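User
New here, help please:
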Amino acid sequence: MHVKNFVICDTEQQYARNLLQMLNRKKKTSFQFYLFHSPKEAEKFAEQKPVHTLLISGECPADQRRKIEAAFRYVLVKDEKEPLQPDEKGVYRYQSAEAVWNLIVNESEESPRSHITGELIGIYSPVHRIGKTKFALSMGRKLAQKMPVLYLNLEEYAGEEFYFQGKSELPPKHLGDLIYDFRQERKNLGIRISMMAGQLGNMDYIRPMPYVQDFREVTGEEWQALLGRIREQCIYEKIILDLGDSVNGLFQILEQCNVIYTPYIEEPPALEKLNRYTENLRRCGMESILEKTIQKKMKPKESGKRSRVTEKNG
């Protein structure tokens, strides 16, 4: 395996050492890591050995950064407005070392993963109050143990205070802020999300929109375009969409998903709703949604026991 030189150059020494320690635990990577605390040291190294990937502090002046030759150039930034050179990409400093690694390796390491866009996993059911959101969060947290995952709640009334209870401090930004930035056609969507995201275990999440009127004003076309940008530009291999009936363009979003999970319970009213939902999709010519659907039978909770689920293809 050809070894590629990965250079970290950062004046914040403790941050840089912590990052290097995490990177050195990546046993299967083809990178050899080097750490410098001044751009002059990194420049001298680059004169002697080819640098594949450079991760350098945004506090280093641009003219000094340009002197360090590298195939891929990343700048640790504290704000998305920090000016960058055309061949540089910003990496938000205040995120986990794992997230920094995933962002860089997805773009710069020559592996099949680097060319795959994130998969959308839709969680939707016409049957309500059966544990859909808990199921979505549980799935996201399990997947996040192996890969970068983002959870988005697209419901009118998401109940975040309940589902994220125990978090000492919720992120100040929410999905409405991300929509606003998207409408302003701001660049660096990956940096914006990393600045907004909270963490639940290893899973990232953006707080749902707090105001119903703002939620209803987001068009289906905007949701689809935003999700497309996240899939193409962000580090996430899986994006969990917790969908409600009121989101505009619901069926179009479901068509965009790679797989859809539809929870239900075996009670006559619930089964009738499920049948009407599937029949409606067929009449509208949206059999493709059904082909991607896995129905999850939720077992009603018993006292002191968790719900269990079984699955079958839709």
